[in-house]
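Record format v2
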Amino acid sequence: MKPILVFQTDFTYKEGAVSAMYGVVKSVDRELEIIDGSHEIPQFDIWSASYRLWQSMRFWPEGTIFVSVVDPGVGTGRKACVAKTTDGYYVVTPDNGTLTHLKKEVGIISIREIDETINRLRGKNNEGVSVFHGRDLFGYCAARLASGIISFEQVGPDYLVENIVVLPIQEPFLKNGKVYGNFEINDPNFGNLWTNIPLSIFNQAGFVYGDHLRMVIRFNGGIVFDKTVLFHKSFGFASKGDVIIYNNELMRVAVAICQGNFSQVYSLEYGPEWEVDFSK
Amino acid sequence: MKPILVFQTDFTYKEGAVSAMYGVVKSVDRELEIIDGSHEIPQFDIWSASYRLWQSMRFWPEGTIFVSVVDPGVGTGRKACVAKTTDGYYVVTPDNGTLTHLKKEVGIISIREIDETINRLRGKNNEGVSVFHGRDLFGYCAARLASGIISFEQVGPDYLVENIVVLPIQEPFLKNGKVYGNFEINDPNFGNLWTNIPLSIFNQAGFVYGDHLRMVIRFNGGIVFDKTVLFHKSFGFASKGDVIIYNNELMRVAVAICQGNFSQVYSLEYGPEWEVDFSK
Amino acid sequence: MKPILVFQTDFTYKEGAVSAMYGVVKSVDRELEIIDGSHEIPQFDIWSASYRLWQSMRFWPEGTIFVSVVDPGVGTGRKACVAKTTDGYYVVTPDNGTLTHLKKEVGIISIREIDETINRLRGKNNEGVSVFHGRDLFGYCAARLASGIISFEQVGPDYLVENIVVLPIQEPFLKNGKVYGNFEINDPNFGNLWTNIPLSIFNQAGFVYGDHLRMVIRFNGGIVFDKTVLFHKSFGFASKGDVIIYNNELMRVAVAICQGNFSQVYSLEYGPEWEVDFSK
């Protein structure tokens, strides 16, 4: 079977862009299977695009082709590319930092710049358009790749994996019984915040489910939260409305309010400036 | 053909959860057809999850498998189950009240608890995860069932239908020419409110399209709306901005503002505390 | 292969309506392929529905069947129809202005009123329902057409293309070196505003990428914006936060703020009362 195409953008479904993009795919090959990853990545948020790819990719069949279009630099000099991961997935994307987590956590074994002279949609009164590469370039090229019309090699010339654009990633650590990290992403629907701390570091620190841990959160160095909070394996072990530290779906430490919105209630966000440490 | 999988959750598409869940399904069996029911059920709102299943189910082909994940108790003691309805559909869901309407309005003929030792996803660094049963348990088990890898009997041990967790449902009635009910759900997009009153009770009361009916709405017993309003078969029979009582898509009495938002304009919601009566 | 069905409505995914509608399609024919165009067309906004069809249609394979349900007059006298375009697409829709852009920009060669006596869903306790033609009429009829159960001729009686309901469309023009038009639609996600001015008129006026153009915006005749702004081929040529005039995905002139929301920042909307002119 031909590989599945999973799309991720910041376009939303509010207008006709996704429809046009998917129409291009189906015009290349009616048999191709298109699935929405998300069209609600926060606008221009390359970091989130990168994280969401990593979050979901390994649950898909090997060979699945991801198309990620969070592309504030569309029409400018940034490269349009197709990357191949060490575990056999493909990502069609602007090379603007979207490959950050995959490169670090999974590995990219090869990357090619899309040759616009052969892998760009033409003939739809769109030759002069520079603002919709999701439709004219990424969607079209991905469809040709999925369909077998072109091989990975025919995407365009390869370039060095070390030249892939990446955003800085912070590293968590354990020191003197205290675990240090930062909030690296959120669960925007439920308002949970996810740290960059693997559960394994909590294990090393001797923290176990049922413990009450002191959690200190800093924004640009200033303390914005300092409380002792239950650490457990799921939300339901806290009372409704209580803060809880838990092990998230990616085996990393996260924080929620049971049936509430932690991020909103405490006005907390994610990013390198949001540090957090845990101690007994 | 293998049964369709229709998914309903409160996850939204804002991050990578739905993508990971669907990836699991496709990794079990590439042929399976996945359709979004809704990923915008209000958070933790088991009542809405229950209602939406009943609202849409009978329009699908017999044998369709619904996966419903509104699951505030994930990782705690609540049962994970697969129910079979009297009319031949399946629902994969936490047994937390989500089966309320189907049990009452359609009937459940058999229910089985998912055996996690065989029907839980493994090998994706997710063995220690307790917060994402949509991906690791419900989605995975549903895919195995749809694919024919397991039979309904192989889901796990059955238990008594009478032990299914249900939420209380109120009953409408006719008394002395007046019809009593409550707002049991909304149309959150358009702001319409739907009562639990079947059109047949209006017929018994002698109310016909074109009548102007006195509608009294009470919140916790106090009157919050008392006006005489047109009853007709569709919105367009009222002038733009006017309130109208109509027969909704499920043959129940509902209230809207023509091209407006009834719920918002009058600050009305739904639930057992929102009573309504109609008289000529 | 059977034609694809692309759905566009103002229903959202917040409740069970889309699910019920798609269930009807799958109950007619399991093989049919359903793709979301958008379920977030602004409520009752027939103009947007019309525009979005035109925006995306030509990117789909010939023969694709679009189902558009923005239908404030549901259950009243407006016609339910299937239109065939000159380039071979079908649209199943209320004849309420939704065909405006297709009729003008593409051409309709034939239109038929849906015969409810044969192409309306029955037997689901829905005979008395007048408020959900998306499920009971448009979705059902479109599925029968896509499946080959009925031919286009069997939809129902044809009527004159000249009788199709259309909304007024404004025409842009060039006069004394100045280009006049209006904002005819938005990009609601990013806050860009799209004019009705084809790039070709800018070319005739001698405007080229890199020019700074005076842009005057009027609301009901009164000036609400008057600044000189860069005109270029994509957003990234402006600095973050700056206004930019660009050539949009449909080869029409549009206005954005680089990584910002032009519509929101300047409180601008679209419609016939929003005029704009450009000069050097």
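The first helix of chain B runs from residue 17 to 28.
Chain B has a mean pLDDT of 97.
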